[in-house]
Amino acid sequence: MEILTAIKRVPETGAKVSLTEDKLDIDTTSLGFTFSPHEECAVEEGVQLVEEHGGNATVLTLGPEDATEQLRSSIAMGADDGMLLDGGDDEWGPAATATAIAEAVEESDTEFDLLLFGNESADAANHQVGVRVAEELGLPCVTGIKDLEVDGGIATAKREIPGGSEVYEVDLPAVITVKEGLNEPRYPSMRAKMQARKASVEQSEPDPREDDLELVELEVPETDDSPAEIIGESPEAAEEVVDVLEELEVV
Amino acid sequence: MVLTLVEHDEDGLDDVSLQALTLARDVAEQAGEPLEAIAFGAGAADVAGEAGDHGVETLHVVGDALDEYAPEAYGRAVVQCAEEVGTEAVLAPGTDRGAETLAHAASKLDVTMAAEVTDVEVGDSYELTRQRWGGTLIEHSRLTAETNLLTVAANEVSVTAPGGDAAAVEAFAPDLADGDLRVQLTAVEESDVEGVPLGEARVVVSGGRGTDGDFSELEDLVERVPNAALGSSRAAVNEGWRPHDDQIGQTGAKIAPEIYIPAGISGAVQHMVGCKGAENILAINTDPEAAIIQKADWAVVADLHEVVPAIAEELDARGHSE
């Protein structure tokens, strides 16, 4: 199987987010970078499917040149190849991102059986890149998947709903977007990380098409940081707790 | 005209659809346009009364022809309905189905969809407020598409209903293309996990690293409370103490209970975005400086392994246990 997993480099935000002066971005001066839990599962799934069925797991990202770091992290997790679509430092909109990825897939010498995405990016959360890539390539698409099996050219994908899950069956090739919980991503060994540093990454420079959504300004929401009313500092507080539950009429 | 995709079950329109309708009505009033809605599947026409109560004048019903959910076909139907009635905006609930259907529609219309929207100012363009990072960051942006497609962030809009006559029901038959039904709901499996789903519980009790892996006391407490569910932090899931389905947070379950009781959870931003729908928070933590104490309404600063059994006993003593 030939599998392509798309990931996005995002800052590792801590307890408090601060913005750049122009309010158009997060101030990342003192932050590290990563990719989202959904996408970690997507990378892991690609690697596991190749371990089971043979083939190649390729990881792609559209972002700044520094996003090579996230490709190498994926290679350390067991991915075979990395593809960087060098989009420069500015954030790309979802339509531009999807078109560039779809074109890269079409131009690739590899015919991919499965394209994996996170259900939504950790930062922008536009909820559409995977679907748009599928539409542009004329492929079927299932989103928000937490269980995936591939057998004989058919993917059986499950999406969690309250009290159960929905089951979808699609013929490959297909696009599937996943959520955390799909699997348990592995921690790469130090040796794998060292080897990944030397892995070569294929690079190209797509041109962005226009998006209809223009960022005006970011804002850190005001939060109510007034401390809680301390109703006890020992097990005796159980009485006060049950008073609260009675007051709210939930017991 | 402003069109809203709505989802329904045997109890009528779902909560996030009502939230979407509330924001859509605001958009329609600002634009001086009528509010219409589109619903799919068997029983769709039955929500005409409720839709009318929420300001919908016309309900377009795609009935039996498309009974089983099929995202691309739904997206196609939304596009065709929007084009036929001439709409300036389409709103959808920020659910898995809402987002996926509208993303298909956006791609077919070749416009960008704005997701997780909480507020719209209608002018020459749409000035939007939307959520990033699960709501830890607010984005102000401008949408200038020929047709503006928006999903409404779940549990952010307070539902209001102006009252009104039942919406006029109009059947809509989409002209589907080959392949639109390639992806269609094949089956629904019931979870073997018993009890109340996290997202629907009135009381949620959850544990984090502070449990040291022992959730038995929390389980005992949950068993004593009606409509209660047990959750966990991402840290507890990563330790292998709980299944991922129990995880509350940005990449896990989003809860909206009457009261949330996190025990031994520090309160990282990514956790808090999963429980921001909670009406009240009562934290149990040994650390008075923990972030969760800042976010909670009430706190017990003590060891959860002592406090939680004491709460269970107190419930028993007062005759509350189920």
What's the topology here?
The complex is a heterodimer of chains A (251) and B (322).
Chain A: E1 2-7, E2 10-11, E3 33-34, H1 37-53, E4 56-63, H2 68-76, E5 81-86, H3 94-107, E6 114-118, H4 129-137, E7 141-151, E8 154-161, E9 164-171, E10 174-178, H5 190-198, E11 201-204, E12 213-219, E13 229-232, H6 238-247
Parallel strand pairs in A: 1-4, 1-6, 4-5, 5-11, 6-10, 7-10
Antiparallel strand pairs in A: 2-3, 7-8, 8-9
Helix pairs in contact in A: 2-5, 3-4
Chain B: E1 2-5, E2 8-9, E3 12-13, H1 15-31, E4 35-40, H2 48-53, E5 58-62, H3 71-85, E6 89-93, H4 96-109, E7 113-122, E8 126-132, E9 137-143, E10 148-152, E11 168-171, E12 185-190, E13 203-207, H5 216-224, E14 228-232, H6 234-238, E15 259-263, H7 269-272, E16 280-284, H8 291-295, E17 298-300, H9 304-317
Parallel strand pairs in B: 1-4, 1-6, 4-5, 5-11, 6-10, 7-10, 13-14, 13-15, 15-16, 16-17
Antiparallel strand pairs in B: 2-3, 7-8, 8-9
Tell me the structural class of chain A: alpha/beta
Low-confidence stretches of chain B: none
Q: Give the termini separation of chain A.
A: 54 Å
Which stretches of chain A are low in confidence, meaning pLDDT under 50 for 5 or more residues running?
none
Oligomeric state of the chains present here: heterodimer
Q: How widely separated are the two ends of chain B?
A: 51 Å
Number of helices of chain B: 9
| Number of E-state strands of chain B | 17
Strand order of the largest sheet of chain B: 9-8-7-10-6-1-4-5-11
- Strand proportion of chain A: 25-35%
The helix/strand order of chain A is: EEEHEHEHEHEEEEHEEEH
Indicate the radius of gyration of chain B in whole angstroms: 22 Å
Largest sheet of chain B: 9 strands, mixed
Proportion of residues in helical segments of chain B: 25-40%
